[in-house]
Amino acid sequence: MRQGTGPDGPDDAPEGGAAGAERCPFGSGSALPLHGSAANDVPWERLRGRYGGLVPVEIGPGVPGWLLLGYKENLQVLRDQDHFSADPRPWSPRGTAPVRSAALARDGEEHQRLRIPLVEALARVGTPQLVPVVERAAVHLIGRVAADGSADLIDQYAAPLPALVLNELFGLPDVYGRLLADLTLRLWSADPDRAEPAALAIRAYFTGLVARKRAEPGEDVTSWLLAHPHGLTDEEAVASLSLLWETGHEPTTHLIGNALLTLLEDPRVWTAYLGGTLTPEDFVDYVMWTDPPIRMLAGRYSTADIRFAGASIRQGEPLLFGFASAHTDPSVFQGGDEAMAMAGNRSHLLWGAGAHRCPATGFSRELVRTALDIAVDRMRGMALAVEPHELRRRGSPAVHGLAGLPVWFTPTGERAEPAAAQEEPTAAPVRRWIRKRRSTPSQGARYQAPLAREDTAEERVVRAPATGARSRPRRPPQGAGARYQAPFAEEEILPDPLERLLATWRPGG
Asked: How far apart are alpha carbons 176 and 426 in whole angstroms?
C-alpha cells in the first residue's frame, strides 16, 4: 500500500538519497539519532532538502522510528487514523509509548469517551470567564516586579502565568497555583534532584485535585469533567487533567516568551503590533509559523506495513511530527520578507488536526493574547537587558523556548514584598475528610456502662458534702452510661491530599 505525497520507489528518491530505510541522513548507513546531545541540533532544512518528507531516526538506543519533515506528510499523519494510530498498546510489548505523546493514547470510541468530557468542560469557559482570570494573574505577576524595572519574563511571567490560570479554573485557591508554578520551574530545571521530586508532587497535585472535587464539586473545570455523563473514573480524570497541563503549559509558556522576544527584536513587528495593523490574534499565528514553541512531537504508530512518502514503514514503527521543518516547507512558507504574510494564517500544525486536534485551541489563544496585551501595556519602555546572542534556549529537541528573557522597563509603583514572604503557603479553609474512630470500649456491667472512677483521698475531701447538706446523686458523664448512653464516636479530622502536599512545600526549594 502506498501513502503520502513523497516519492515512491528507488527511482523516485530525492537526489543524494535512497529509498526506504536505506535513506541515511549522513550517508553512514545509520539513522539520525534523536537522543542525547545530538537531538538538540537537528538540521531541519538540510534534511528536508536532501531526503524529502520523511527520514529514518533512532528515537532511543535501539528504538527505530521516523521523523516527518514535509508539511503535507505531517498533516496527513495527523488526520489519518486508519493507517496511523495514537494508541501505543498494540505495538509496544509493555503497552507504553517509546516517547511521550501530546494526544490521548487511544483511538476510536474509547478516545471519544475520554476526550468529549474535557472538550465540553473547557467549552464552558468562555472569553468572559477566562479573560478576567488571566488579567488578575498577569497583573499580579507584573505587580511583583513593577517597581524593580527589570524582570525575567520567562521565570517571573510566562512560566507561572498558565499555572495560576489553570489552577483557578480547576477550582483551587491561589496558593495551590503558586505551588503548581513553583513545581513547574523545578520540573524544567536541569537538576534531577529537583526535577524528580517535582514530578511526583505534580502527580500528587492532580490526584488530590480530583479527590477534593469528587467530594466537593463546584463551578469549575474539574467538577464539570467529573460530572460528565461519560462517567470518567478518578484515574481517567487525573490522566486527562494531567495531559491538559503537560501538553499545554510548556508550549503556552514558550509561545508567550517567543512572542515577546519577537516584539523586542523586530521593530517592524513591534510597530505594527502597537499601531493596530497587526492584531494580537494574527500576531500569535505569525509566531506559530516563524518561531513555534514546539519543534518536534511524538505522534503516531503505523497500523500496517505501508509505503509512505517513498519509505517502507513497518507495522508498529513510531512516527514523530517535525513541526519546525513543516512550518518552513517551501510549499507553504517562503520566509524572508514574505513572512509577515503568515500573520493570520491559521493552517499551521501546532494545534494538531483531525480527531486528536488540541481541545484547548480557543482557550490557549485567548490566554496568550491577553498575556501579551497586559505585558506590553504595563511594562512601558520594555527592552532586552542583554544582547540577543546572549539569550539561551532550552536544551530540548522538542521544546523551542528560552531559558530566560531578561528585560528592562520603566519602573512603576512601590517595591513588592520579598518573594518568600508572599509565597508563604496558607491554605484556605476547606471541608476535610472525616474518619470516625471509636474510643476504647468502656468497662462495666451488662451493657458495658463505664466503671465508676475511684476517687483519690484529696478528691474525697474536696467533694465531701457539708454536714447536714443534702447531697445530690452524681450524674454520669455525658455520653457514658447504660443501654442508651454508649459512648459517641470521636471524630478525627485529617487533612486531604492537597493539604498534605501544601504542608510539605517550601517555595523556591
From this structure: 9
**Which residues, 6+ apart, have CB-to-CB distance to 185 below 8 Å?**
155, 159, 160
C-alpha grid cell, residue 146: 513593577
Give the predicted TM-score (pTM) of the model: 0.79
Evaluate whether 54 touches 321 at the Cβ level (below 8 Å). Answer: no
Return d(Cα 268, Cα 236) in angstroms, integer.
47
Least confidently predicted of 17-31, 320-334, 363-377, 391-405: 17-31
Distance from C-alpha of 406 to C-alpha of 386, rounded to nearest angstrom = 7
State how far the Cα of 148 lies from the Cα of 151, in Å rounded to an integer: 8
Q: Are 177 and 159 within 8 A, CB to CB? A: no
Give CA 146 to chain center in angstroms.
27
Q: Which uninterrupted H or E stretch holds 467? A: none
Q: Where are the alpha helices (DSSP H) in 37-190?
A: 44-51, 71-79, 108-123, 127-143, 160-170, 174-188
Tens of pLDDT, residues 345-378: 889 999 889 888 888 898 999 999 999 999 999 9
Q: Give the helix, strand, coil percentages of the chain, each rounded to 5.
A: 45, 10, 45
Backbone phi and psi for residue 177, each to the nearest 5 degrees, phi listed first: -65, -40
Q: At what angle do helices 234-265 and 280-290 cross, to 10 degrees?
A: 90
Taking a C-beta distance cutoff of 8 angstroms, is the pair 333, 286 a contact?
A: no
Q: What is the pLDDT of residue 506?
A: 83
C-alpha grid cell, residue 164 = 495560576
- Which region holds residue 378: left if phi is over 0, alpha if psi is between -120 and 50, else beta? alpha
Query: What is the DSSP code (8-state) at residue 455?
Result: P
Of residues 232, 202, 230, 201, the one with CA closest to residue 214: 232
- Using a 10 angstrom Cβ sphere, with 0-12 exposed, 13-18 middle and 19 or more buried, the burial of residue 327 is buried
C-beta atoms surrounding 245 within 10 Å? 20
Share of the chain above pLDDT 90, in %: 51
Q: Of 36-50, 230-244, 267-281, 402-416, which gets the smallest average pLDDT?
A: 36-50
Tracing cell 451488662 back to the chain, one arrives at: 446
How do 32-33 and 54-60 pair as beta strands?
parallel
Q: 416: exposed, middle or buried (C-beta count within 10 Å: 0-12, 13-18, 19+)?
A: middle
